[in-house]
Structure formats: C-alpha cells, structure tokens
C-alpha cells in the first residue's frame, strides 16, 4: 500500500496542527471575558470531563511539566476556579476539583465551543462533518494503539511512503 502520493496528504500534520492552534486561538478570543488563559481553560475542560484528578495525572493529560501544573493550579485556586483536596486512599496525592464558580460557567463555555466548532465546520454538509470526526477518531485510534497493533506499523522503515 503506497501512502502519501497526494501532495496535500503530505501536509496533513501541518494542517491538523494549524487547525487545532487556530481553534484554540478563536476559543481564547471568544472566552477572554472570563480572564482565563488557554492553559487554564484546558485544565478546566479536563476537570469538567473527569472530576477529582490527581495533579500528576493532569500534567500527563495536559502534556506539561508537573511543576508547571502546580503553578497553574496555584493561580487558579487563588482565583476560585479550582480546589485541591487530599486523596482518599493516599494522603500524599493532591486531587484537583473544579469549584462551583467554574462549574457555573460550563454552559457558557460549552456555547463558546459550539460557536467555534460551527465556524470551523462552516461550508461542510452534515455528512462531511460527521465523516471528518469519524476519520479523525480513526487516526487517533490508530496512533493510540501500541506500535505493533496499528494497521501499518508492521512495515519496516519508510516502506510504502513516497518522498
């Protein structure tokens, strides 16, 4: 199976990165009234999805250093957005929770995200939008699988890739 014959496919990584960056930027512009940075929003989104996350796990999920997460949480705790609690099974573990103040904004934030998604998907039919999401999920599943389990990872080197 030969991949990457189309020059546009070779731009895939750049397009995905640029699209994600532009969506984050647009979201930040539309949500600036709340006074939270992009990193703070990302942390809150994680807490909205998964309440009571250990600080170390947040660092992994956000792909930033544990000390940076600690400082981020410090600032957010001072602003009343998050709170730390001791873990129930291990007192050394610090769990992070969204506060009532942060949870009260969830509907507003979801609406901002919907507007950004609508802007990003403008000009696509509903079928195209669903197909895009399906294909991106397939890519994520492929890349999230262990190396030997990805459909093409059994190939050696650049076999099948054109330059």
Description:
The chain is mainly alpha-helical and 163 residues long. Among the domains are: 36-100, Arc Repressor Mutant, subunit A; 105-143, no CATH class. The protein is 56% helix and 7% strand. It is built from 7 helices and 3 strands. The chain has a 3-stranded antiparallel beta sheet with strand order 1-3-2. Helix 1 (12-30) crosses helix 6 and helix 3 (55-62) crosses helix 4 (66-78). The longest helix is centred in the first third of the chain and has 19 residues, at 12-30. It is globular, with a radius of gyration of 20 Å. The two termini are 14 Å apart.
Question: What's the short version?
Answer:
The protein is mainly alpha-helical and 163 residues long. The chain has helices at 12-30, 38-49, 55-62, 66-78, 100-104, 106-120, 126-144, and strands at residues 53-54, 82-86, 94-98.
Unreliable spans are: 155-163
Q: What would you call the structural class?
A: mainly alpha
List the total number of helices. Answer: 7
Q: What is the β-strand count? A: 3
Task: Work out the helicity level.
Answer: 55-70%
In the CATH hierarchy, the architecture of the domain at 36-100 is Orthogonal Bundle
What strand line-up does the widest sheet have? 1-3-2
Radius of gyration: 20 Å
Annotated CATH topology of the domain at 36-100: Arc Repressor Mutant, subunit A
Q: Quickly name the level 1 CATH class of the domain at 36-100.
A: Mainly Alpha
Major pleated sheet: 3 strands, antiparallel
N-to-C SSE series? Answer: HHEHHEEHHH
Share of residues in strands: 5-15%
- What's the N-to-C terminus distance? 14 Å
Overall mean pLDDT stands at 85
- Oligomerization: single chain
- Indicate the overall shape: globular
GO molecular function, one term: DNA-binding transcription factor activity
Organism: Nitratireductor indicus C115
Domain HTH marR-type: 9-141
Pfam families: MarR
């Amino acid at each position: 199976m030969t991949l990457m014959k189309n020059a546009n496919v070779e731009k895939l990584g750049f397009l995905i990165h640029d699209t994600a960056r532009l969506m984050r930027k647009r979201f930040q512009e539309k949500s600036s009234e709340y006074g939270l940075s992009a990193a703070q929003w990302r942390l809150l989104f994680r807490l909205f999805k998964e309440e009571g996350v250990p600080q170390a796990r947040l660092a992994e999920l956000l792909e930033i250093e544990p000390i940076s997460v600690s400082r981020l949480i410090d600032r957010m705790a001072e602003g009343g957005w998050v709170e730390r609690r001791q873990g129930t099974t291990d007192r050394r573990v610090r769990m992070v929770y969204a506060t009532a103040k942060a949870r009260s904004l969830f509907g507003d934030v979801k609406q901002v995200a919907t507007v950004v998604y609508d802007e990003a998907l403008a000009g696509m039919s509903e079928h195209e939008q669903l197909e895009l999401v399906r294909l991106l999920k397939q890519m994520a599943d492929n890349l999230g699988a262990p190396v030997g389990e990805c459909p093409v990872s059994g190939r050696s080197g650049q076999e099948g890739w054109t330059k």
